[in-house]
Amino acid sequence: MTVRAASARVSDRATTRLARVLLSIAVLATVSIAPGARACGFHDPASVNLGMLNLAYPDALHVRTAVWMAQRDALLPRGANAPSDPSSVEFRLEAMRRYRDAVAGLDALRERMTPMDGTPRFAVVLIGSMLWTRFEPSGGQVAMTPHATGPLPDDVVVVTDVPVVLALLDGTLTPAEAQARGLVRLYGPPRPRAGVASLFDRLRAPPRARADDPARLRAAAATPTPGTPGRAT
Fold it and tell me: DSSP string of 169-204?
């Protein structure tokens, strides 16, 4: 490796670290302005900063484009459009419902995880709403913290979106297919990243359909913030 190439790699790593620090500062600033509240697109559409996410986790925005393409090709579910006025009561009620359904979907996914000794902790961000949820494997189970302020320093970061979670739940998409199509992206050191990928690969098969099966969660597939797929809003 040449000195120039080595310097470029060091510079890229430094830029990525700086972006992640800035992302953390931005999240903490939001929390300090509104104590007790952790902003995401479901609760505050103006808080979504996809550009900062993409800087911290290179090519994260590609997930948004991959989801749009999969929906276009009928590989992923589409949801109804959200009310257009963020200040309206209807918009806020719909956003609350979608938040509740998104968290329920993540929790249903958690219940099908079978962690092994040493499975690393990780944080999932739903790119449509910038909703962060942390997962901590321990004792053969996985604890989940929804609406987290963001990942902790050693967390593997998983970037995906609600329609992908729904497809994984109903078995129409496998974790391997999701990663191959760019619908899920993992960030972190190679070994922890491989551990989280293995955890998703071992998801238990979906149960038989029930009357209370979360098919209604498909409505959460439409994100509460407008914008063109693949572009920051």
Answer: HHTSS-HHHHHHTTS-EEES-HHHHHHHHHHHHTPP
- Distance (Å, rounded) from C-alpha 132 to C-alpha 147? 5
Q: Is the separation of the CB atoms in 130 and 41 below 8 Å?
A: yes
Q: How many CB atoms lie within 10 A of CB 176?
A: 12
62's CB contacts (< 8 A; 6+ apart) are: 182, 185, 230
Residues of the chain where predicted confidence (pLDDT) is lower than 70: 1-48, 80-84, 86, 208-233
Q: pLDDT over 70 for what percent of the chain?
A: 64
pTM: 0.73
Q: Measured between alpha carbons, how far is 185 from 197 in angstroms, rounded to an integer?
A: 10
CA dist 104 and 108 (Å) reads: 6
Sheet with 131-138, edge to edge strand ranges: 141-148, 131-138, 122-126, 156-160, 185-187
